[in-house]
Amino acid sequence: MATFPEKIYELVRQIPKGSLATYGQLALLAGSPRAARIVGAAMYRAPAGLPCHRVIYSNGSLCCDQAFGGKAIQRQMLEEEGITFLPDGRANLKEHLWPGPEKAENPERLF
DNA sequence: CCGTTGACCCTTC
DNA sequence: AGAAGGGCCAACG
Predict the structure, then answer these.
(1) How far apart are CA A96 and CA A111, in angstroms?
(2) Number of compact structural domains in chain A
(3) CATH number of the domain residue A13 falls in
(4) Protein A24 CA to nucleic acid B10 C1', in Å?
């Protein structure tokens, strides 16, 4: 059983270029819908080579300033990936959200 | 083993 | 509509 961060790394690594994922989504896919914080903590300890810049808030806003050295930096990187941004300054989650708007593949879910 | 912390998210004022 | 607070779960010391 891989640790939670391990799953998070795998999920983030599977995010295709030009797609965005939220901490809540990763936590949900990891198996803990409420463990969004752990995802963030894992990202903090995430090794290089991980496209953690594709992981943003559920709100569509980017993470704190300390990440990537500034929101502007992350925004720049996302734009390079082909991600579009809204006039509000938020990422266009409705256009690039991953894994998908209704893919919601549930392996077994609870119950 | 128990306590603290954390790149979050959601509800309420 | 904007701001504040609490809750949640897991890793780390």
Answers:
(1) 30
(2) 1
(3) 1.10.10.10
(4) 11
Instruction: Please name the residue whose C-alpha is nearest to the C1' of nucleotide B5.
Output: A41
Longest dimension (CA), chain A: 43
**pTM (two decimals):** 0.87
The tokens of A13 are what?
A: 């690594």
- Would you write out chain A's pLDDT as a tens digit for each of its 111 residues? 789 999 999 999 999 999 999 999 999 999 999 999 999 999 988 888 899 999 999 999 998 777 888 888 899 999 999 999 998 889 999 899 986 644 445 444 333
In a domain, A91, yes or no: yes
Could you confirm whether A52 is annotated as catalytic? yes
Q: Of the residues A11, A52, A63, A78, which is catalytic?
A: A52
Q: Which domain holds residue A62?
A: 4-97
Describe the crossing of helices A36-44 and A23-30 by its angle, rounded to 10 degrees. Answer: 100
Residue A107 CA to residue A111 CA, distance in Å, equals 12
